[in-house]
């Protein structure tokens, strides 16, 4: 699978990248929302993992852009904000899953496996 990661926290970004590469996935790293949206316009990814709060464009704006582009990309939202309204808004915009930080890389992999075609 080709997986886009949009995360401005370098430690989290590298941790997810390491885990996904170890599991045999291809990874595209983006460090802000604008970079993620630009990449989604150019590449066909199988899954996107995005933080909510990022520079230039939020994870919610990324979700909205995916919908506007007409792409069918599952999106897992990562956030330290577990507030109900944020979670509900993300799901209303088409998020496939939501994980509250801090999280276990193993838990993230279990959730990703749900989106791998059988």
Structure description:
This protein has 118 residues and is of the alpha/beta class. It has one domain: 3-Layer(aba) Sandwich (Rossmann fold), CATH 3.40.50.2300. The chain is built from five helices and five strands. A five-stranded parallel beta sheet has the order 2-1-3-4-5, sandwiched between helices. α2 runs parallel beside α3. The N and C termini lie close together (12 Å). 28% of the residues are buried. The mean pLDDT is 92. InterPro entries: Bact_response_regulator, CheY-like_superfamily, Sig_transdc_resp-reg_receiver. Keywords: Phosphoprotein, Two-component regulatory system. It holds the Pfam family Response_reg.
The main sheet orders its strands as 2-1-3-4-5
Q: Uncertain segments of ≥5 residues (pLDDT<50)? A: none
Spell out the helices and strands N to C.
EHEHEHEHEH
- What percentage of the residues does DSSP assign to strands (E)? 15-25%
How many helical elements?
A: 5
**Overall body shape:** globular
Total number of distinct structural domains: 1
Measured between the Cα atoms of the first and last residue, the distance is 12 Å
Tell me the Rg in angstroms: 13 Å
For CATH, the homologous superfamily is named as Response regulator
- Rounded mean pLDDT is 92
Report the strand count. Answer: 5
Helix amount, in percent? 40-55%
CATH architecture: 3-Layer(aba) Sandwich
Question: Which structural class matches the secondary elements?
Answer: alpha/beta
CATH class: Alpha Beta
Largest sheet data: 5 strands, parallel
Modified residues (4-aspartylphosphate): 51
InterPro entries: Bact_response_regulator, CheY-like_superfamily, Sig_transdc_resp-reg_receiver
GO biological process, one term: phosphorelay signal transduction system
Domain Response regulatory: 2-116
